[in-house]
Fold:
Amino acid sequence: MLLTRSDGVSQRFYSMSAQIRKERTAYYNILEASQQATLDISNWLEWFLHCLYNAMTAAEAILANVMAKHQFWMHHNATPLNERQIKVLNRLLDGFEGNLSSSKYAKLTTCSRDTALRDIQDLMEKQILTQTEAGGRSTSYGLIWM
Structure:
């Protein structure tokens, strides 16, 4: 609460509560150790400051991702894209797990595999996607970053 008040702004870009949830085991361990020991809270403060650092580092990573996504869309703002393509590109920009294949594209957009392949080929022609090294059944695609 004091950290929030000391910022002098009503909006923060880091979340201590989210970070404490991530580190809840360590939180409960340090809390228990602090309550059973002397009145020295040095270990608690050290843990808290480390947690604060982790919260700010996580916020910085989120902000970097938002900025990269913004830059990508600013670069491609004049590129004509359909709704399926926009949906898949946003998923890729948000950290899609695994490789993008035409079958995964079709499942994500609920379209046929032929439509998915046409959309992917269109994105490759517009130099937004590139085909990875593997071919055949292992064919997959990735974003081209500026």
In short: The domain at 83-143 is CATH 1.10.10.10 (Arc Repressor Mutant, subunit A). DSSP finds seven helices and two strands in the chain.
